[in-house]
């Protein structure tokens, strides 16, 4: 199959006589239900492309995906009837895993454009501007371009694709493998694939994280040139159904940078640059969800727009005007960076961010001012009027507290009446453990919360994270014993919160305490995690609030 390293033939279903006809004899509704189980789940963002099919292990992310596709591919080869039922499912979720798949998928869609109508999810799991990808794509085009045959039915997409392929064919005899010759061909091939999958809903792109690889400016500009081609028939235009865009920072290069044995010069700041994809956002009219892995943390406008501001032309318009939900995984963003994100996404309803390890030690702020104008607290007060779900965290903001807000606290939360779900660190609420005694927790929270997750975390604990995996039983016991006073203080705060909760938070239904260092609360084989919280749990239950405590390490 063109979309990945699927295996060969396989049995579909056998009856008493070992014949596949048993499956065909079933009612079509039953067959459809069976085949639905073979539709693979889309791969998660941040996954590298799989190794060879035969080398995948059962618990690997791509194992089920490739096996499901192999099953559907086998069903397509049983009979015409089963093929008609299984082929739309085979093309519903498509993952492009290598250069050969890129070339052959376009060939298939060029010959049978009706296949593209079935695709709802499409992902590309290699960086199109890598030198090795460019070189391999050229070589594959020399081999396969002569086998591209257009569909018998004419249309704008087929005509434009044919013109492009003819132009490309004229270059092939003189095409060299040196750098600079048709470097943008992989991006162009993906663009034409996107033209054919007109009912696509979710798109995942693996994008560069280093200046050594060119950004996808060509892809963005090419996508922007497609809409005018369909002015006479706008209903046939592509990109009209895309609601989710996933930008996956190159996970292989990221792993290389983070490897202790990395022998290359690691950039000071690296990662995906979502701001560079603003032209792409503008081409997807129904785009509401943006998910990014390993972004570089910079959400201010690109250099040209900043230059326009300096020249007095006024601030540029938001480049995320219609985005409602943003999810950042392994992000380099600081609280001040999220100020720009909120400023450029005025309709944002969901903001989720998990930090990249040690990011606080590789960037330095321009100013150190307790009234920092681009603090996250300012952005929440001025640019987050529609925010309903907030989940952000950092491992260490020592010396960077001014990027959060006054005294390192998010004071604007208490006035955010639209917020319904909040996951927040105690350090972001109070600034320091000593400040816990000054203000009751209930007064710091949004009044209409329904769900609350409190992360038991303070910046001074950051140094323990590196040591934690190496702790032996004695060190865990010592840490538990040393935290006696802290546990008393934390439980006192939670108990008071449980007493006060209905004085202000009338809609709250669930509270979760997330413990990042489990050995603060756990004494192995003696004290379980839940032991300290039975009284707190009962007090919340009396108020109609479900309380639980969790730790990923236990």
From TrEMBL:
Protein name: Uncharacterized protein
